[in-house]
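User: Quick sanity check before I run a bigger batch. Here is a single chain. Can you write out its predicted 3D structure?
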Amino acid sequence: MTWDWYRLLRSLAEEAADRADLKTNVTLPENIESLTPDIEQSIYRIAQESITNVINHAGAKNLKLEMTQSAGRILCWCRMTALV
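Assistant: Done. Predicted structure follows.
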């Protein structure tokens, strides 16, 4: 049984932003290539740390999490906008 990291990544961003009273925009690809469990977990943990840093240190009002996959590469951005 594998964990649904992709769905959990979206939930992580939305729930964390909701607790911090931030607006959220999550953009993930419709489909993603199969990845090894180690890579899946690494992406999830890196995004988790990025989201935490935005919430705790950036003074943001908006959180944007975006991920793309192209040519065997995955790019993931966690951005904040509209500083207080």
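The chain has a mean pLDDT of 81.

User: Great, the batch can go ahead then.
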